[in-house]
């Protein structure tokens, strides 16, 4: 019956085995009844499951059933007792019903639960008597023979040392027999008329007790004899195993380590040596496991405190520990040496790969597209070189550690001077470090050359970029000259200021042009140094010259217009401000004609575009700007014309007056 199928019923705890035992060593089964109605079917199922748990030997002793009816009705208690009598009478030896004390004062119950057991079989008693008597004789002989003779360490255990019967089994049988006899006597002493012990059973009990006491005494002595024999045997076995461990470690184990002295010349070779060392360690581990077991056994024997064996055990333990610790130290040293060699070769391999990568970068042609790409490549190159320097430093450190370990390497043999072949390992380590140093130095020299070249390329791209910028600036100056420098001034003073600003403006353009020319010249020099043809300077120089010529033509035209405007305003202001209507001084006619001629020439020039060397044309400012300037000039010409007419009228009036004055005497005479 599986518990999972009746788990809900078992959780109700209608009955349970508490683990306690009665005087007969029988198990105690408890049935706690509650105030609620108890299902007899579920109780029967629970009992069937619980009674299937103990062994058949335990069941044979019978169960003591405790029915706790303190919280239940009496009719339920009687039903449970009757169920026990009908369902499991073979397993039940005693039923105890628990009820409140006042219950028995009120009610008298009449039911009897008893079962007739078979009388104690004499075959059991006779068997125990026969076996125990024979066993006592054998144990006495063994104990006396062992006590009367000195322990012989070389004497093996023979069959005569072992008794014919197992003492534990015979003692167990005697205890069970005695417990059964005592239980029968106890049941009979309670006054029950159902059963009473027989006389032979009453006489058998003291005899069984006497046999048990004698048997226990002899068995205790026999156990001590066995312990001493076992101890001597164990000591002999320990000594044999200790010598086996010592002989192997000092023989084949030491020879294995003595022949393994190389460190390999590459990562793969060092890995192969590590694998070989792991195999050696695996073989040693088996013997070390034997050492641990032997050490525990010897420690246990030493704790027993037998003085006759202490010195021998301590000597064996010390010898075994010394050999094992020395061999373990050699294994650990070899393992650390191989690990350092593996790290050294791994670092050397990584450094070699980095040097190959750096050399590949240095041997490849540099074809950057701009200065930023050159700087990025240069930065990457510097990072590679720095990484190589760090790896080389790490190689030196690991190589020094490995050299120190090799120099501190002790002899593989105990007490023997054996030359370890370390010169080859030392030469290999130093050769690897020197080779890496030379390769790094060559790459570093090449990096210096490449760095200089790339810095020149950065300067080249910078010069080309700045030259292009100079062309753009010059173009912007030309554009500003054509579109914003259109005013000619309202008077001579303003025109003079505009002339000064124009000269400064031209100076700025001249500086920009000269700067661009210098940059392009530097580009040519850098390209010659780098042994490469110019890419952008061939296009930039014509553009620079073309824009400069356009600017020169435009600035010259602007200068001539400002100079004409200055001459016009100066002459006009001389006419307009040099004489007034009341002034007796008159302006020469040539001055008026000059102002008129300059003004008309200036007006005509305003309508003419700037013609560039390539034949293209460009006007100053917008048509409205030119119209405004022309209108102002025309207004001044009109003012000058008005002043001319006024001067002519004054001159005519003056001539008429002089004529009248000249004619007045004549008229007076006539």
UniProtKB/TrEMBL annotation:
**A molecular-function term among this protein's GO annotations:** phosphatidylinositol-3,4-bisphosphate binding
* Domain SESTD1-like spectrin repeats region, first and last residues per copy: 339-448
Q: Where is the CRAL-TRIO domain?
A: 31-123
For this protein, the record's InterPro entries field holds:
CRAL-TRIO_dom, Spectrin/alpha-actinin, Spectrin_SESTD1
Q: Which UniProt keywords apply?
A: Repeat
Q: Which Pfam families match?
A: CRAL_TRIO_2, Spectrin_SESTD1
Give coiled-coil spans as residue ranges.
Answer: none
Q: Does the keyword Repeat apply?
A: yes
* Sequence similarity: Belongs to the SOLO family.
Supply the name of the protein.
Answer: SEC14 and spectrin domains 1
**Which species expresses this protein natively?**
Scleropages formosus
What gene codes for this chain?
SESTD1
């Amino acid at each position: 019956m599986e518990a999972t199928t009746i788990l809900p019923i078992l959780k109700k705890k209608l009955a349970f085995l508490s683990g306690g035992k009665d005087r007969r060593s029988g198990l105690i089964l408890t049935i706690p009844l509650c105030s609620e109605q108890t299902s007899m079917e579920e109780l029967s199922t629970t009992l069937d499951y619980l009674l299937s748990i103990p062994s058949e030997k335990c069941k044979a002793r019978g169960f003591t059933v405790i029915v706790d009816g303190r919280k239940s009705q009496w009719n339920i208690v009687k039903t449970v007792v009757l169920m026990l009598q009908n369902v499991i009478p073979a397993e039940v030896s005693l039923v105890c019903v628990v009820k409140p004390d006042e219950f028995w004062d009120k009610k008298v119950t009449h039911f009897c639960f008893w079962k007739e057991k078979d009388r104690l079989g004499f075959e059991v008693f006779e068997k125990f008597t026969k076996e125990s008597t024979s066993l006592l004789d054998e144990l006495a002989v063994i104990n006396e023979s062992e006590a009367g003779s000195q322990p012989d360490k070389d004497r093996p255990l023979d069959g005569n040392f072992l008794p014919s019967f197992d003492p534990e089994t015979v003692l167990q049988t005697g205890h069970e027999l005695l417990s059964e006899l005592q239980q029968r006597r106890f049941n009979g002493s309670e006054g029950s008329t159902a059963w009473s012990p027989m006389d032979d059973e009453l006489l058998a009990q003291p005899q069984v007790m006497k046999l048990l006491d004698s048997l226990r005494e002899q068995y205790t002595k026999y156990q001590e004899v066995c312990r001493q024999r076992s101890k001597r045997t164990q000591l002999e076995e320990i000594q044999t195993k200790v010598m086996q461990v010592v002989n192997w470690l000092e023989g084949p184990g030491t020879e294995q380590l003595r022949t393994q002295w190389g460190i390999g010349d590459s990562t793969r070779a060092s890995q192969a040596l590590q694998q070989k060392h792991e195999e050696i360690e695996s073989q040693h581990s088996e013997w070390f496991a034997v050492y641990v077991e032997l050490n525990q056994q010897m420690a246990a024997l030493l704790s027993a405190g037998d003085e006759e064996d202490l010195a021998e055990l301590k000597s064996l333990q010390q010898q075994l520990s010394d050999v094992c610790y020395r061999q373990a130290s050699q294994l650990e040293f070899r393992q650390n040496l191989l690990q350092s060699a593996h790290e050294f070769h791994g670092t050397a391999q990584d450094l070699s790969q980095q040097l190959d990568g750096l050399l590949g970068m240095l041997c490849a042609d540099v074809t950057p597209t701009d200065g930023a790409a050159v700087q990025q490549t240069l930065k990457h190159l510097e990072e590679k070189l720095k990484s190589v320097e760090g790896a080389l430093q790490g190689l030196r450190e690991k190589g020094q550690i490995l050299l120190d370990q090799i120099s501190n390497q002790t002899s593989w043999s105990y007490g023997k001077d054996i030359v370890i072949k370390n010169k080859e390992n030392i030469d290999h380590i130093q050769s690897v470090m020197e080779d890496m140093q030379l390769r790094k130095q060559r790459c570093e020299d090449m990096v210096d050359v490449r760095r200089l070249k790339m810095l020149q390329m950065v300067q080249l791209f910078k010069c080309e970029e700045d030259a292009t910028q100079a062309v753009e600036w010059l173009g912007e100056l030309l554009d500003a000259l054509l579109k914003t420098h259109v005013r000619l001034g309202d008077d001579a003073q303003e025109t003079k200021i505009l002339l000064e600003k124009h000269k400064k403006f031209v100076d700025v353009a001249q500086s920009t042009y000269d700067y661009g020319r210098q940059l392009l010249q530097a580009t040519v020099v850098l390209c010659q140094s780098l042994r490469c043809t110019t890419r952008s300077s061939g296009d930039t120089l014509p553009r620079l010259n073309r824009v400069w010529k356009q600017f020169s033509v435009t600035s010259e035209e602007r200068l001539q217009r400002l100079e004409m405007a200055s001459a016009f305003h100066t002459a006009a202001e001389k006419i307009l401000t040099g004489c007034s209507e009341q002034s007796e001084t008159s302006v020469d006619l040539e001055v008026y004609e000059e102002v008129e001629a300059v003004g008309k020439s200036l007006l005509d020039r305003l309508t003419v575009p700037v013609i560039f060397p390539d034949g293209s044309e460009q006007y100053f400012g917008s048509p409205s700007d030119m119209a405004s300037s022309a209108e102002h000039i025309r207004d001044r010409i009109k003012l000058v014309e008005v002043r001319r007419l006024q001067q002519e009228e004054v001159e005519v009036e003056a001539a008429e007056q002089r004529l009248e004055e000249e004619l007045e005497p004549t008229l007076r005479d006539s």
